[in-house]
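Complex record, two chains
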Amino acid sequence: MGKLRQFEKPTGFRDFPPSTAAKKRLVERRVQACFQRWGYREVLTPTLEYFDTVGAASAIPEYKMFKLIDREGKTLVLRPDLTAPIARMVSSVLKDDPLPIRLYYHASVFRAQDDSARTVEFFQSGVELVGDPSPEADAEVIALAAEALSACEISPFQLAVGHVELLDGLLREQVEDPQQVEQLKACLGARDVVGYKERVAQLNLTPEGKELLLRLPHLSGGKDRLESLRPQMRSRRVENAVRHLWEMWEALEDFGANRHVVLDLSLVGSLHYYTGVYFEGYALPSSFPLVSGGRYDRLLERFGRPAPATGFALKTDRLMEASPAADQEMERVALVYPRSARREAIRRAQELRKEGKAVILQVADDPDQRTEIDADRVVRWEEGEDGRK
Amino acid sequence: MGKLRQFEKPTGFRDFPPSTAAKKRLVERRVQACFQRWGYREVLTPTLEYFDTVGAASAIPEYKMFKLIDREGKTLVLRPDLTAPIARMVSSVLKDDPLPIRLYYHASVFRAQDDSARTVEFFQSGVELVGDPSPEADAEVIALAAEALSACEISPFQLAVGHVELLDGLLREQVEDPQQVEQLKACLGARDVVGYKERVAQLNLTPEGKELLLRLPHLSGGKDRLESLRPQMRSRRVENAVRHLWEMWEALEDFGANRHVVLDLSLVGSLHYYTGVYFEGYALPSSFPLVSGGRYDRLLERFGRPAPATGFALKTDRLMEASPAADQEMERVALVYPRSARREAIRRAQELRKEGKAVILQVADDPDQRTEIDADRVVRWEEGEDGRK
């Protein structure tokens, strides 16, 4: 191994200088204000988890996890997501708290990347609403995601909402072979509509079935799209999903959030643990998600406290880039003083700090010393002055 | 390996439920307000660093580090402290920023423990002031540490301030064998005054030298203690250190911080990279440090940008326990509504949120459903009501 350069940091890891760190704080503060107003409370989980518990329950594939072995020989992973650790927490530390429970977090997650240029430690802010199976709960997290994006001044943005059971159900009603269903979903997940249609064309289907599947990638819009499905529904599973989405849409109307939402019935969940409503949010015209989330009703049972759940994670790093928001920063004043004026300079600094300014005190033995100072305003005392200028 | 219980987390790692997470936020917010008013700016560094750079430069012994191997075969460590990463950052990302530079951080650090009951991931909030060799810089960080402890309502507290060069110089002026000097420092570091005195008694010293070394553990107080050393100073090193401490004390008087400070000339730096002033702060009568810090003038050169530096780290976990501070929390209101009153309930929630309240919306199809809700006030709609009660 060659000698490392002194300033090197591991591949895919980043330093945040003051300007970037301040933007991260801004985004986190704004989304946190939303989470708190909606009754969510912050929790923290460890950076390391057991592979056998959280690692195995996580939706992140094993090859993307950072692993290490502890002194007892157990395999640990750097937290690949927050949903599994919080599910663990709800089932242990918080096991006596009644459901539903509303939690939020700000944390970094770690995912090894094939492409060495990509970030491996990145930040998420998210919520988990555990214990509520209702369409209102799905509408709540979607409306809250919309409020969080608005709070970061993302405009315009759109939330695409699908339903993994509905998509799976519609495909299975027409296509018997589960492997073919998975292949169709893989095309949709990769947004390969051409490939999807080619595959559909090759399948042995009824004319109505073929027509439905070909229409699926274009079934996006408002709740009328659900109406158009009704004649084709054949299974209870699809019926239930359509009813759930319908109720959710009406709740979104009540939240006033439906104007940001487009139903996209061909949307494929990004993680395998989703069991119902799934959504992604974009700053238009980008198609890079700033947020993704949805319902995961089967995860909690893996930790011994079966409960329905829904939530989302904002991708903080992308949100920092997409957000034009800026806060009025504290004015930075530097007081440069000779030692003889120290007491006076410190007193003045204390006054200015009380007024809400950031004050840098800098002793300069040489009055002509012209140090460059990171401040909006530099006040220099001269020998013998009282500094009140 | 036995089957792990579903709720297990790795030894020494902790979950923070909402009450604990809120206390951590409180402490961080309050100390951060101090750091910002004094002109410090936040930075973030990666959770993982190269062992060969930051790991080797860190003052934390190698056996306490969590190591892993990356895909390129390089050894990574979980951040054992923040001072070395920030030194790396000042020498790389921030290399064009003029000195002095003032930075702060909130972050977790990782230290493997022999005792499995002890925490291995804990939190620190701290500052680094890079590029200022003056006694005023040392006084600034000590006064800022005092302001941070006050902001957390720690009362009374005391900051013990020593000087690693002064202690080493005084011992070496009397004791020729460097190994014996190290043994004496080990006794002082372990607060084993009896053992220290026994060792001193066995040394072959002049009567004045013996008297001085026996007096050393009791040399704590104000700047008069420095005065009492003057007749015994033999080396430039000791003279310079005494002059530096004297100036620093006068600056602390100007800050009005000297009332919290006791000079303790037998204080041994907790980490090997300290080169001058060293200090620790306690909530009296405890002797468990809530903060420690000092001058480290030789660390930056290891990253290619030689510069004097000083700073401190608050031990956030201990501070959370020691601080009696509590903030007025947002009132939590729960609105429990039947589906028929959804629109009205959501409208009411939006009004209450604008008024600064945290509002939990809960649909309850069964009006008699008496879910336990984590709220200060529960408002229940009855079927057909307008919810304005």
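Note: The CA atoms of residues 319 and 360 of chain B lie 31 Å apart.
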